[in-house]
Each structure stands twice: as structure tokens, then as C-alpha cells.
Design a protein that fits this description.
- By secondary structure, the chain is of the alpha+beta class.
- It has a single domain, classed as Thiol Ester Dehydrase, Chain A.
- It is 23% helix and 33% strand.
- It has a six-stranded antiparallel sheet.
């Protein structure tokens, strides 16, 4: 058995946490897209990439690779969950005013097809559904280039407004 190795680099989130409180959601998303604020360590670890984000809408992609696989030869369900959680949350974040944070309260994922290494790039499309004073909801789908769906889900986020 040959041992595989993968090197992942990232910047500590503590280096930019304070800066996040001074930005609106759309400003934060734009800063990440420009590279002024680095992608989160978790996204670097899973090799998830942001492709698009605008008010209420976000797209993130991943190419399933060997390091994502479970013993049955398909991507671990946590990959789909992380991909959808990110796309749905950023869809909401892109609408938030300056100083408002969030945390995922609930996420529901339905798996419809296995994600395997022969599928190429898969994209999670997230859409905000409701932005309230305390919570927000969003939905998302994971699709391939032909539009085949691999998973879909919904989320509820707790909005943390300044006091």
C-alpha cells in the first residue's frame, strides 16, 4: 500500500477577523474575490473555490479528487455538505449590512447521485430565500456541467447583529 501525501497552506483567520466587522457582506465577498482577504482554511483544505457571488446568489466549485473519497469510492458526504453550506451562506452574506455576522443553525442535504472523481468540476449554486431580522434561509444545488444534480439542500442561518 502506497501512502499518499497532500500539502495544504493557509493564512490564519485571526489575521483578518477584526477587518470583517467593518465590511458589509458584499464588501467582504468582493475582498475575498480580489484576494485582499484569503479563502477560509476549510475551503483550502477541501479545494473548494469561489466562482461568483452577487446579492443573494453564490457559486462555489470543487473537482472531486482521491483525497475526498470514502471507502466506497465516492466523495464523502461531508464534501457536498461543506460545498452547499458555503454557497448557501455566501448567498445570504452577500446581502448583509456592515457588521452583521452569521452562523449556520441548521442544514439539510439530500444526496441524489454519488460524486465521483470522473465527474469533473461540480458547482454549488446557492440562493438566499429569506433575510429576516434574526434568521435567514437559503437553498442550494450541486450540479455538473450538463445540469445533472448530485445534491440539494436548505439552510437556516442565525444573524448576529451589533448590539
Amino acid at each position: 500500500m502506497t501512502e499518499q501525501q497532500r500539502v495544504v497552506t493557509w493564512q490564519s483567520p485571526s489575521l483578518y477577523t477584526e477587518q470583517l466587522h467593518t465590511l458589509s457582506g458584499s464588501e467582504y465577498v468582493a475582498a475575498v474575490r480580489r484576494g485582499d482577504i484569503p479563502m477560509s482554511p476549510m475551503l483550502r483544505l477541501l479545494d473548494i473555490h469561489g466562482q461568483e457571488a452577487q446579492a443573494g446568489h453564490a457559486i462555489f466549485t470543487v473537482v472531486p479528487q482521491e483525497f475526498h473519497l470514502n471507502p466506497m469510492g465516492m466523495a464523502h458526504g461531508g464534501l457536498a455538505c461543506a460545498l452547499l453550506d458555503t454557497a448557501m451562506a455566501v448567498a445570504v452574506v452577500s446581502t448583509l449590512p456592515r457588521g452583521v455576522g452569521y452562523v449556520t443553525l441548521e442544514i439539510k442535504i439530500n444526496f441524489t447521485k454519488p460524486m465521483t472523481t470522473d465527474k469533473g468540476e461540480l458547482r454549488a449554486v446557492g440562493s438566499a430565500l429569506h433575510i429576516g431580522s434574526r434568521t435567514a434561509t437559503a437553498e442550494g444545488k450541486i450540479l455538473d456541467a450538463e445540469g445533472t444534480m448530485y445534491a440539494h439542500g436548505t439552510t437556516t442561518l442565525l444573524l448576529m447583529r451589533p448590539t
